[in-house]
Amino acid sequence: MSYQRSKDPHIIDLPKILDKRGNLSVIEEFAHIPFKIERTYWVYDVPGGEKRGGHAFRSNDEFIVALSGSFDVVLTNAEGERRVWHMNRSYYGIYVPHGWWRELENFATNSLALVLASEPYSPENYIRDFDSFRKEEK
Ligand code: TYD
For the whole model, what pTM was predicted? Predict the structure, then answer.
């Protein structure tokens, strides 16, 4: 199984190994997600209803999984197209290519968002102002 690196955000279903002792899912770089994993981080202890994100990346691509709980991934492109995914299962994730304004919101209490990233952390990769984002993407 392999995927093209796409400019379109989309859900990727992960393997789901069902077991009476507890289920298991897995992510391998280039097999299940279309990039090499340079960084892994997670967002947790988010107060219910709180928001994270509110920025775009110049080149970093990400894959986001709701390991626990639920939240919404809200993506907006420079043309103003807005797309929302409700994430609430640990056996799929959303591929978020760079070039989309990205917000995580509507967190349920005790949610855990796992984020796999294609690049190391770099503040220069962030666009934190929506108008600047639109201008850069034109
Ligand atoms: P940020 O990506 O700005 O999260 P949000 O947009 O949800 O607020 O990250 C918050 C802080 O964490 C920021 O000061 C930078 C730091 N940070 C790192 O040091 N390394 C990382 O890999 C990430 C994602 C954030």
Answer: 0.95
